[in-house]
């Protein structure tokens, strides 16, 4: 787990947490599951495409 995930996760302090990134891995997901008691969405986007309509749909659905 990189520091880039740890800092915002610790700031979330158990509150719902969303991370949109092009470098999310299974290791990141496992680390968040082990260290965060609140809801969390780690959503990987394709760096060649950027945020697409489907990404906004996933985020919107999770936030509801």
Structural topology:
Layout: H1 3-12, E1 17-21, H2 26-35, E2 40-44, H3 53-63
Parallel strand pairs: 1-2
Provide a quick synopsis of the model.
Helix content is 48%, strand content 16%. It has 64 residues and is α+β, with helices and mostly antiparallel strands.
The rounded Rg comes to 12 Å
Strand segment tally? 2
Low-confidence stretches: none
Strand order of the largest sheet: 1-2
| Sheet/helix structural class | alpha+beta
Helix fraction bin: 40-55%
Biggest sheet character: 2 strands, parallel
Which series of helices and strands comes N to C?
HEHEH
Overall spatial form: globular
Give a verbal description of the structure.
This protein is of the alpha+beta class and 64 residues long. The protein is 48% helix and 16% strand. A two-stranded parallel sheet has the order 1-2. Strand 1, helix 2 and strand 2 (40-44) form a beta-alpha-beta unit. The longest helix is centred in the last third of the chain and has 11 residues, at 53-63. The termini are far apart.
């Amino acid at each position: 787990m990189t520091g880039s995930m740890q800092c915002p996760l610790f700031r979330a302090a158990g509150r719902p947490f969303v991370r949109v990134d092009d470098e999310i891995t299974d290791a990141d997901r496992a680390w968040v599951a082990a260290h965060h008691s609140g809801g969390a969405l780690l959503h990987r986007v394709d760096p060649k495409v950027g945020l697409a309509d489907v990404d906004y749909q996933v985020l919107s659905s999770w936030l509801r």
